[in-house]
Design brief:
Largest sheet: none
Oligomer: single chain
Shape: rod-shaped
Radius of gyration: 52 Å
Distance between the termini: 193 Å
Number of helices: 8
Length: 229
């Protein structure tokens, strides 16, 4: 009689074992990141928190693009024969990729010293003087009203500039008026002095006309004799 010999089946690495290995790797990486963060722990301000949130969302969006359907199209043979194994590989790939990206980003944040820089930015914003009372422009949803408000702000600034220029011109006009008034007073004073001199000369001429010619000639003759003596 022929003896049936059953060959032992070769056991393939199961997805569960692979998942355990990846999980342990991710746990190790995460623990290393946590240890590094705890060793150099610095209280993070709001800007740094916002940055981490934005990076986290970006990573999630990028990792989300690695869907199973994309791998199934590229590896049809694995999808048809071992779909569960392929799904496990895709999951491990996504987890490892996310872990590596987070590790690199944490390293970049540490090397670039971003936490103290963002904290300094928060402090400068906190210490900055308060804004002016002029309300900032905000859109209302009505384009016509928004453009009117925007133009109004520009016109108000232009009005302030023109008022400043007008005040400068008015101040200059006041100075010129005062200088003109002073000069006018000086001219009036000089004119009065000239008038007084002319009146004096006219009076002297009238007095000379009243003296007889013989007396004038006699007076001139006497003056000539006195000069010769």
């Amino acid at each position: 009689m022929a003896t049936n010999v059953t060959e032992p089946k070769q056991t393939e690495p199961t997805a569960s074992l692979e998942n355990k290995d990846v999980s342990s790797t991710n746990t190790t990486v995460s623990s290393e990141i946590l240890e590094t963060t705890e060793d150099s722990h610095v209280d993070e301000g709001p800007h740094m928190v916002h940055l981490r949130q934005a990076l986290h969302k970006t990573i999630k969006k990028c990792i989300g693009a690695a869907r199973y359907t994309r791998f199934a199209k590229s590896y049809k043979f694995a999808h048809q024969k071992k779909p569960q194994a392929l799904k496990s590989i895709v999951k491990q790939f996504s987890e490892n990729l996310q872990s590596e990206i987070e590790k690199e980003l944490e390293l970049m944040i540490t090397e670039e010293n971003l936490v103290p820089l963002f904290n300094e930015l928060d402090q400068q914003i906190k210490d900055a003087p308060p804004k002016s009372d002029t309300p900032a422009w905000r859109p209302s949803g009505n384009p016509e009203r928004d453009i009117t408000s925007h133009i109004m702000q520009a016109k108000l600034k232009e009005k302030e500039r023109l008022q400043y220029l007008l005040k400068q011109v008015e101040d200059e006009n006041v100075k010129l008026h005062e200088a003109l008034l002073t000069r006018k007073q000086h001219l009036l004073k000089t004119q009065q002095e000239i008038t007084d001199k002319l009146n004096m000369f006219e009076q002297a001429a009238e007095d000379c006309d009243k003296i007889p010619g013989t007396e004038i000639r006699q007076l001139l003759s006497n003056l000539g004799h006195n000069a010769s003596d």
